[in-house]
Amino acid sequence: MPAFPSFCVCAALLLTISSANAFKFSRCGGNDDINVQAISLEPSVITLPGRITLGFAGKIQRPFDNIDMKIELVRKTWLGNVRIPCIFNIGSCSYPDLCNLLDRMEREDWVGISARIAAEIRQLIASVDSEGLQACPYQPAELEIADRSLDLPGIPSLLAAIANGDYKIRVELSNSRSGSLMSCFEMEMTLKKGD
Fold first, then answer.
1. Domains of the chain as residue ranges with CATH
2. pLDDT at 3
3. Cis peptide leading into 43, omega within 30 of 0?
4. What b/e string do you get for 111-126 counting C-beta neighbours within 10 Å, with b at 16 or more?
5. What is the dihedral of CA 176, 92, 170, 190, to 10 degrees?
6. Which residue numbers delimit the MD-2-related lipid-recognition domain (predicted)?
7. Residue of higher predicted confidence among 5 and 189
8. Cβ atoms 104, 111 nearer than 8 A
């Protein structure tokens, strides 16, 4: 399964499950082997369950097959920023081997929602035709996703206590073998638990 679009979509979707400010995206470093140029997410307040519209632009600059993803999720509160720990692979977590992440999400179905999220991501990837995204190792390629709708599941009761609020998410993509930072980006969003 393609790691390039899946890492970005996984980051955005996993974080909206654990995240009335407008969505913000910024880059925070890396050697640009994976160049995430832009991410858009609407609506500005994400309601779960609900539907989002996702946009993405990026490039794979060189072949790779060994990427790890680290996510730091911080909730903004009146007491200051509070780091959300990794709870059942949702929150501030590390995900080794992005080539197999969607398979793992489906197989383990973290808190009863990751299998549905993985299925949504697979449908999104199947709708995008890009030669470098067919299988590991991934080849240099450009990817642009414009205004694709995704359905998000409801919040499990286990995560309900942290559902509503403003969140800042930092995503780091690193080469598993060398440890070098390939890409880093940050997003800010507001999450609201639906009825």
1. 3-193 (2.70.220.10)
2. 47
3. yes
4. bebbbbbbebbbebbe
5. 150
6. 23-190
7. 189
8. no
